[in-house]
């Protein structure tokens, strides 16, 4: 909307002038250039998820319906219901005569849709969490740069001050420069330690997202639920 001239001409208060708005993930201010939204950074993880959904929707339905998982106990019976107590897909004969006759069951498609929806929500939460962690890492990188810039300015300031003093102050100048360098190193090491911790968490979370995405690619309801 910020890049649409019609919105600007309407004088909408919801879209600030100049194509400025805040990122919904990291809350940093974003300024659109002449490329508009196409100039923004791409989220490759979300694009991969979208590609998987497109591939799923492009598959013919009859091809998915041709294969059926058969019951191990009743070889001629298709698995078509889900035992809520045992949390396992089963067949109608198992419900009537077999091990699940006293269990509560539900239609396989309903459980399939519910659990797949829960997994989809879980993936969305993980992706949002990864975005927040990435935003935190970015902020910490900025803190490191700020510490280094502040240290550089302090060193320059001390250099100008002590260059105008007598030679008896040269030793004092050296001590203060070393003190600043130690403080810089301590602060940078502390922040980089936090960055490594968040980076490890981001890597583990990304692997979990990839595993969940692979599960989303399973077209067979019973195999998916197993």
From TrEMBL:
Localisation: Nucleus
Single GO MF annotation: transferase activity
InterPro entries in UniProt: E3_ligase_FN3/SPRY (IPR050617), Trim54_Bbox2_Zfn (IPR033492), Znf_B-box (IPR000315)
A Pfam family: zf-B_box
Keywords noted in UniProt: Metal-binding, Nucleus, Transferase, Zinc, Zinc-finger
B box-type domain location: 66-108
Protein name as it appears in the record: TRI54 protein
SMART domains: BBOX (SM00336)
Domain of life: Eukaryota
GO biological process: regulation of microtubule cytoskeleton organization
Gene Ontology cellular component list: cytoplasm; nucleus
């Amino acid at each position: 909307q910020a890049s649409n001239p019609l919105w600007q001409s309407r004088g909408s208060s919801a879209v600030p002038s100049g194509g400025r708005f805040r990122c919904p993930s990291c809350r940093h201010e974003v300024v659109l250039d002449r490329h508009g939204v196409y100039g923004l950074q791409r989220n490759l993880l979300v694009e991969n998820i979208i590609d998987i959904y497109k591939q799923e929707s492009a598959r013919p339905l009859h091809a998915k319906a041709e294969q059926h998982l058969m019951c191990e106990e009743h070889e001629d019976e298709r698995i078509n219901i889900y035992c809520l107590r045992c949390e396992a897909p089963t067949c109608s004969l198992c419900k009537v005569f077999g091990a699940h006759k006293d269990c509560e069951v539900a239609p396989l498609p309903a459980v399939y849709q519910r659990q797949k929806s829960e997994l989809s929500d879980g993936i969305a939460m993980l992706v949002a969490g990864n975005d927040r962690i990435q935003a935190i890492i970015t902020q910490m990188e900025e803190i490191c740069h700020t510490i280094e810039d502040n240290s550089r300015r302090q060193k320059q300031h001390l250099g100008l001050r002590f260059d105008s003093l007598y030679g008896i102050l040269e030793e004092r100048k050296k001590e203060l420069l070393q003190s600043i360098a130690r403080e810089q190193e301590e602060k940078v090491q502390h922040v980089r330690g936090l960055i490594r911790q968040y980076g490890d968490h981001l890597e583990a979370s990304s692997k979990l997202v990839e595993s969940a995405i692979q599960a989303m690619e399973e077209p067979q309801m019973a195999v998916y639920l197993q």
